[in-house]
């Protein structure tokens, strides 16, 4: 039974630390997704949580709390003899030191560097550059502290590790590419250790370290009308080299250190439909009619299957550009599925009334493990679509061509997984 509810929007790293602390203490906290800009502005919400910010916590016995670190602390303290809060006063104080550092040193840098990338605020190159320099000082301090230590305080995971790791995860996922993170070997090792703890992984999902430093797309901030996906309208960065081998990296990627057993999808009978060829063809030709025709002429229903994906919390979406960012985040976490999947997820509708849905083509007749293992998979309903049905085929075409109107709704934005 859960000890209470935590109100938030989906995939909030400030919530992750609470859920991880709960998992270590064998407690459950119910995550409740609210509609941002609406529910958190209501008088009944403000009466309990006057700042109107999330996450907020409401215990079963009517105790209200906000500020994510306070909530995480509360949950961490609920188990007698917990190892999360240190073995003595000195350790307890050190844990507070790191938690405070995360909020005072890392959070402002995240706002300056990552928020423009997520499309939350306009890009300001001078601020980004300063954030990139500022964080190096903090990373050096953290790295140095870990020279001879596995965890930040004492010998086991504490709330300090949980808060620091969740404060750093968006950096590692999006901007700490191999060369940026190279100088911080101890920190990288620690981060890898923490995010691969089963209780942490269950909350964060698999953490795939950035291969390339993400940059803010001007388009996200200015929010112009999205263009149809003509060959040259597709972001260049999405064009993958024809060959992308897992062990091609110049830096060791901790995310790839797991044993690379043979993927069952590689053992399927050879297909006449080559997904890589399709992706290249789609990138280099007009979608309608050229690529669409090519697809159906070459598609192999024995070796592949078609799936419709619909975001489960469409009624909670607010700004269309934020919905689009959710899709971007999902695709980022699908990195390992590239070899077996192609997809188009689009945002349909308008601000405060939009939906994320689309189609995927998967190798084989099921949803690949590389997709079901992705952190955001649970946020989508995947349903097998009849690839022999002309109506379904036309709907799929509309999604990959980003038609102006899809299923009766206005196309707002879209992303292609390829
Ligand atoms: N220090 C706070 C930060 C909370 C915060 O800034 N929440 C943002 C989302 S990440 C929010 O709810 N903003 C909504 C608003 O300001 O209306 C914490 O850790 O809980």
Describe this structure in words.
This protein is α+β, with helices and mostly antiparallel strands. The protein folds into three domains: 2-77, Glutaredoxin (3-Layer(aba) Sandwich), CATH 3.40.30; 89-204, Up-down Bundle (Glutathione S-transferase Yfyf (Class Pi), Chain A, domain 2), CATH 1.20.1050.10; 258-417, Translation elongation factor EF1B, gamma chain, conserved domain (Alpha-Beta Plaits, 2-Layer Sandwich), CATH 3.30.70. It contains 15 helices and ten strands. The chain has helices at residues 13-24, 43-48, 68-77, 89-118, 125-145, 159-174, 178-181, 185-195, 198-204, 218-222, 275-284, 287-298, 320-332, 369-372, 390-401, and strands at residues 2-8, 28-33, 56-59, 64-66, 304-311, 341-350, 353-363, 380-385, 405-406, 409-417. Strands 8-5-7-6-10-9 form a six-stranded antiparallel beta sheet, sandwiched between helices. Strands 2-1-3-4 form a four-stranded mixed beta sheet, with helices on one face. It is globular, with a radius of gyration of 22 Å. It binds glutathione. Glutathione (GSH) binds at residues 14, 40, 52-55, 67-68.
């Amino acid at each position: 039974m859960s000890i209470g509810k935590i109100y938030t929007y989906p995939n909030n790293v400030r919530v992750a630390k609470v859920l991880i602390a709960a998992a270590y203490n064998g407690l459950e906290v119910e995550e409740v997704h609210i509609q941002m800009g609406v529910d958190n502005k209501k008088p009944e919400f403000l009466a309990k949580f006057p700042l109107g910010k999330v996450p907020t916590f409401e215990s079963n016995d009517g105790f209200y709390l906000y500020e994510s670190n306070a909530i995480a602390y509360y949950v961490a303290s609920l188990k007698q003899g917990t190892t999360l809060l240190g073995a003595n006063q000195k350790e307890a104080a050190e844990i507070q030191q790191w938690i405070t550092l995360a909020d005072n040193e890392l959070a402002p840098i995240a706002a300056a560097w990552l928020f423009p990338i997520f499309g939350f605020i306009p890009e300001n190159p001078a601020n980004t550059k300063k954030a990139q320099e500022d964080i190096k000082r903090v990373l050096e301090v953290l790295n140095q502290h870990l020279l001879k230590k596995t965890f930040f305080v004492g010998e086991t995971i504490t709330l300090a590790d949980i808060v620091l790791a969740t404060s750093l995860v968006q950096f590692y996922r999006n901007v700490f590419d191999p060369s940026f993170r190279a100088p911080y070997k101890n920190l990288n090792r620690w981060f890898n250790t923490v995010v691969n703890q089963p209780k942490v992984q269950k909350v964060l999902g698999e953490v795939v370290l950035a291969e390339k430093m993400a940059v803010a797309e001007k388009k996200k901030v200015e929010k112009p009308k999205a263009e149809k996906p003509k060959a040259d309208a597709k972001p260049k960065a999405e064009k993958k080299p024809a060959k992308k081998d897992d062990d091609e990296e110049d830096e060791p990627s901790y995310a790839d250190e797991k044993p690379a057993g043979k993927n069952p999808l590689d053992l399927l009978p050879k297909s006449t439909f080559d997904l890589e060829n399709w992706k290249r063809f789609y990138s280099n030709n007009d979608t309608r009619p050229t690529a669409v025709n090519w697809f159906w002429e070459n598609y192999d229903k024995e070796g592949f299957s078609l799936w419709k994906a619909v975001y489960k919390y469409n009624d909670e979406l607010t700004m269309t550009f934020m919905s689009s960012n959710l899709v971007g985040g999902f695709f980022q976490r699908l990195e390992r599925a590239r070899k077996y999947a192609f997809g188009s997820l689009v945002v349909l509708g308008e601000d405060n009334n939009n939906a994320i849905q689309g189609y995927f083509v998967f190798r084989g007749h099921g949803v690949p493990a590389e997709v079901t293992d992705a952190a955001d998979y649970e946020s989508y309903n995947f349903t097998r679509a009849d690839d022999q049905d002309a109506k379904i085929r036309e709907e799929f075409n509309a999604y990959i061509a980003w038609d102006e109107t899809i299923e009766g709704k206005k196309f707002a934005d879209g992303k292609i997984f390829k």
